[in-house]
Amino acid sequence: MTALPACYILHASSLLDLMDIVMERFFEKLMYASRWIMAPVYLGLSLVLVALAIKFFQEIIHVFPIIFAMKEVDLILVVLSLIDITLVGGLIVMVMFSGYENFVSNLDIDEDSEKLSWLGQMDHGSLKNKVAASIVAISSIHLLKVFMNIENIENDKIMWYLLIHITFVLSAFAMGYLDRLLHAK
What we know:
By secondary structure, the protein is mainly α. It is 73% helix and 0% strand. The N and C termini lie far apart (67 Å).
């Protein structure tokens, strides 16, 4: 019987090292592939956009028959609600596309197609800041609606609305400031 050349002899430690490498690659590929679990979640956000669009047009349809009988303040409140819905929709679009591009896969859009200017340029840090700014804008619109309807709202609720809004503003400012400090280095 002929002996195997030394290069074919596996030592126990070499076999364990090989198993470690195979297991590590398997888990890394599995974890990397698991990012696709988020793809249906981002697609589901488009259903939320449909729901928002339905509510938007439902609000418009309710206003048209009574528009001449409405007080100006009531019309402004409806318009602020529509702006609120629009801002939330924009936030959803931003999260949907940026999240997909940052965490799942690049969007392959034809060169001759219309492409959003910010697409592919927003990392998770800038997405976080844009989301915070959008939340502040949405909160501002809501607070303006509260002030337009101040006679019907209790003072303690107004105080809570203000505190929550101030918290959003300070949080957004702090996140932007920290992001600027980190990018300055």
